[in-house]
Design brief:
Layout (H helix, E strand, L loop, with lengths): L2 H16 L4 E2 H7 L10 H20 L4 E4 L9 E4 L1 H4 L8 H15 L3 H14 L22 H10 L2 E6 L8 E13 L2 E8 L4 E6 L3 E8 L13 H9 L6 E7 L5 H6 L2 E4 L4 E7 L2 H9 L5 E5 L1 H24 L19 E2 L1
Parallel strand pairs: 12-13
Antiparallel strand pairs: 1-3, 2-3, 4-5, 4-8, 5-6, 6-7, 9-11, 9-12, 10-11
Helix pairs in contact: 1-6, 10-11
Length: about 350
């Protein structure tokens, strides 16, 4: 399935989840990106109808409970919606590696261009006077972010084009310019890395995205190189970074009966007055804080200050992103709608 169609289907699902009433095909065409057409042009309108029918069939094949009906007996044209009671999944317990995979998918989602389009679609629904359920798509737009170099590097990998960027290592005060033919971008121990052929050193190299300074710039034309076959990028990054010594110890409080993943990795767990207290060994305070924040209010960081401060900083970034997203989705003032309006974790730290 093409990226364009994937985005259109995701936005269609978000649109139909966000409304409490049935939406007609014409209302959907005015709201969901990808369905733009001229209703007065018979050929253009027929092409839209074929596209919409294919998308409805695709959603039903995927198991999406697409309902057909009318909001009023006066409605002549049938509409569509998705009932949340039929669409929502039950609670799914995840192992640590499974939760990590979901986290990576959420990060990729944010940089796939889907979240902005979905927010725009909801704004159009409100502008058209459609009653939008503000809780229908909670969790659809993740607030987890990745490094700024992620998107241009993944694009360079897809198009097989060399890049150049400034890179700063912990040992050097000044950043050095690197030229790379990128083979792939992977995540290892909560960090993103790009692996490829270093043009200046004539050998394969690995770079951590968080150490890239400034913008990533392209060199030459697309298709200029071919990555080696059957290369294991994760193994290369693991060998390059080496085993991490977990010399630090962090103390966290866990709600009774919750935080199974933290308990499993804990060195020690003892009962306390306000919950269970666990001791965890760690090597990277930022990585540990990022993982613990994912448990929300079920896990509270008690000590040491470096892990606690890292958790607080991460929570503040999440709140800032969430507040910014909420401001972008504020409904317009009440009034007559234009016919074709184009406007627009919880976690604890002691």
């Amino acid at each position: 399935m093409s990226r364009t169609r994937t985005e259109r289907l995701v936005n269609l699902v978000i649109c139909l989840l966000s409304t409490r009433r049935f939406l007609t095909a014409s209302q959907i065409a005015l709201t969901v990106p990808g369905y733009e057409h001229d209703p007065g042009d018979p050929r253009d309108h027929e092409a839209f109808q074929r596209k919409f029918e294919r998308d409805k069939a695709e959603l039903r094949e995927l198991g999406v409970p697409l309902e057909t009906g009318t909001s009023s007996v006066l409605d002549a044209e049938p509409g569509y919606r998705i009932a949340r009671r039929d669409y929502a999944l039950p609670d799914i317990p995840l192992e640590p590696d499974e939760a990590a995979a979901v986290g990576i998918a959420a990060r990729l989602w944010r940089h796939a261009g889907l979240a902005a389009a979905a927010s725009s679609g909801l704004a159009k629904l409100r502008a058209a006077g459609v009653d939008v359920d503000p809780d229908a798509t909670l969790g659809v737009e993740p607030v987890v972010t990745v490094d700024a170099a992620f998107e241009p590097l993944t694009a360079a990998v897809r198009h097989r084009v060399a890049v150049t960027f400034d890179y700063r290592t912990p040992e050097d005060d000044a950043a050095a310019t690197r030229r790379l033919q990128p083979w792939g971008v992977v995540c290892w121990r909560g960090r993103w890395y790009v692996v490829g052929h270093d043009l200046d050193r004539g050998a394969e190299r690995c770079f951590r995205l968080s150490r890239i300074v400034g913008t990533v710039r392209r060199l030459g034309r697309p298709g200029a190189f071919a990555p080696p076959e059957n290369v294991d990028l994760i193994r290369y990054v693991a060998n390059w970074s080496g085993p991490a010594e977990r010399t630090g110890r962090a103390t966290v409080r866990i709600r009774p009966g919750r935080g199974a993943g933290v308990r499993r990795w804990a060195e020690q767990v003892r009962s306390g007055e306000d919950g269970d207290v666990a001791v965890l060994r760690y090597s990277d305070p930022e990585g540990l804080a990022s993982w613990l924040v994912g448990y929300g209010a079920d896990v509270v960081v008690l000590d040491p200050p470096e892990v606690r401060d890292a958790a607080v900083a991460r929570l503040r970034r999440i709140v800032a992103v969430h507040d910014e997203a909420s401001r972008r989705q504020v409904p317009p003032p009440a009034g007559p709608a234009e016919p074709r309006h184009d406007g627009a974790a919880k976690a604890g730290v002691a």
